Inverse folding.
């Protein structure tokens, strides 16, 4: 590739200019590939999110079931303690302490 010099003469590009133009072309091709890969990644992420959104109704149903079962279990525990108020279940309390200690030792938090 030749360029025109101020005096009207044409000059050939130097080795530096040739290498620079080649590197600029390589960078442009690389940036185009990056753009294509980002677009592909975006489409894949959108597909994953769409699949996740399809399970939102199932998750809501399981949450309702869990909440219902938790309330039913709390009501059952309350009735059991009301009948035998004078009695205390040490084993039951020890197992809860042991479970909470195990959960905190592993770094897992339980919701109760």
């Amino acid at each position: 590739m030749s360029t025109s010099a101020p005096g009207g003469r044409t000059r050939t590009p130097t080795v530096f200019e040739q290498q620079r133009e080649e590197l600029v072309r390589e960078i442009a091709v690389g940036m185009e590939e990056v753009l294509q890969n980002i677009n592909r990644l975006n489409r894949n992420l959108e597909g994953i999110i769409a699949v996740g959104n399809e399970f939102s109704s199932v998750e809501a149903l399981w949450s309702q079931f869990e909440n219902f079962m938790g309330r039913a279990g709390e009501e059952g525990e309350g009735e059991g303690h009301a009948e035998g108020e004078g009695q205390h279940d040490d084993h039951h309390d020890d197992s809860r302490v042991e479970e909470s200690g195990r959960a905190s030792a592993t770094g897992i938090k339980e919701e109760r």
About this structure: The first helix runs from residue 15 to 54. Residues 91-112 have pLDDT under 50 and may be disordered.
